[in-house]
Amino acid sequence: GLKGPQAKSVMDDFDRLQTQDIAFAADRNPMTLGGVSSTLAPRRLDTPPMTALGSDIRAGVQTARESGRQAEKQAWEGANKGFAAPEEALAMLPGEIRDGIAKTNIPVNQNTPTASKMVDFLRDYRAGKAPTGPDDFLPDMTNQSVDQVRRVLGRMKDDAATATDKAAADAVYRSYNTWMSKAADAGHFPAEAVAAIRSARSISAEVKGLFEPRDGGRLTPAAQRIRDVLERADSPEAVVAALFGRVGAKGMMPAGTTGMLSNLKTALQKYAPETGKQTWDDIRLAYWRRITTDSAGNLLSPQTLAKNIAAAKNQHGGAWNILLTPQEQAMIMQVQKAVEAAGYRPSNFRTNSSGSAFAGGSMIKDLVATVWKALAASPAVSATAGAVMRPVASGWYKGKAQRATDPRIQEVVPSFGGFGGAVGSAIERNQVQ
């Protein structure tokens, strides 16, 4: 039997092995490269802290947005080179600008100086007047092309200093682009220009729909969250919080989460083909770490870990399905079952005063065999089988060791749900001598 220091050594050794195996299953095994984290972010050789993940995620999304903007810019440059708007098209301009401003419910006056200048500029453009009279120093800008006007408006709107002025200026700029599209549809521009404008409009709508989705002219909750990720989050940790909220696994995801994740996934795939996969995997890894680690980055206890995974699956349905493939979901739930078994403490087990140990009795063999079979059924997770094999055996051996040091501790055989069954003498034959 085990007594004294030898018993303590057995208990400590199994505690260490249990912690190690659960960490390998939930994070990454440095020897086999197995584990959930390795599966979600295979290009990473280690699991970085949240600060590094948050910074890399922001940089990756910003790269995709900039690439999208460049694609949009190039499309419009190809669509608008060199042709001026005929009178029939110009006649449509005032109404389009007026309707665009009306949708914002923002008066364009002295409180919106940039928007007011943009409207004055368009009044002169409609009337065929030059913004400034030509002289020896200034060119004649009376007959500007459609694209030249669009570029001037784009530069002007960036001068807006207040949120109100910015919103009104953006509305003027968007309305001008809408006018271009409608004038093209009405046949007022050259045929080749019409085709190019339609292509540019499609790209522009896609880019804005991905990074600035709107509903009724207003930014959606998903758009607000994307803006937080790109700009407003004031720390790497805040970037991750902008993605998934601050409530961890147990609370509902904030409004707009599903739409935001879906948009980011598409944007990263299309506009950042070289870096987008890594950024998306980092987003997935950050989500996994949010539900499996504490605020200091330490892996949660088996009981809490199992509960968090189950809660995330039940409460984060839309996000869960976007972030994880069906195969990854199955792998994670197998790990959840294994960790749940490792942390199980039946009510009819008798433990020492600290409640830290239990005797597995006759259910150990069947329980281990059942979970091993479930884990080994998938090659991707076979490496995680140790997360339940060793912890369950650990509990049984620990009970043996503690009974050797305290005869008051009795061995009780639990039903353990559907995992009951006779061990025979298999565990007894293999116990530490």
Describe the structure.
The chain is an all-alpha fold. It is 63% helix and 1% strand. It is built from 19 helices and 2 strands. Helix 1 (4-26) runs antiparallel to helix 18, helix 3 packs across helix 11 and helix 3 (50-80) runs antiparallel to helix 13 (276-292). The termini are close together.
Which helices and strands, and how do they pair?
Layout: H1 4-26, H2 36-40, H3 50-80, H4 87-90, H5 93-104, H6 113-127, H7 146-157, H8 163-185, H9 191-211, E1 214-215, E2 218-219, H10 221-232, H11 236-244, H12 257-271, H13 276-292, H14 302-315, H15 317-323, H16 326-342, H17 364-376, H18 386-405, H19 426-429
Antiparallel strand pairs: 1-2
Helix pairs in contact: 1-16, 1-18, 3-9, 3-11, 3-12, 3-13, 5-8, 6-7, 6-8, 7-8, 8-9, 9-12, 10-11, 10-12, 12-13, 12-15, 14-16, 16-17, 16-18, 17-18
Keywords:
single chain, 433 residues, mainly alpha, two-stranded antiparallel sheet, 19 helices, 2 strands, elongated
Concise account of the structure shown:
The chain has helices at 4-26, 36-40, 50-80, 87-90, 93-104, 113-127, 146-157, 163-185, 191-211, 221-232, 236-244, 257-271, 276-292, 302-315, 317-323, 326-342, 364-376, 386-405, 426-429; strands at residues 214-215, 218-219.
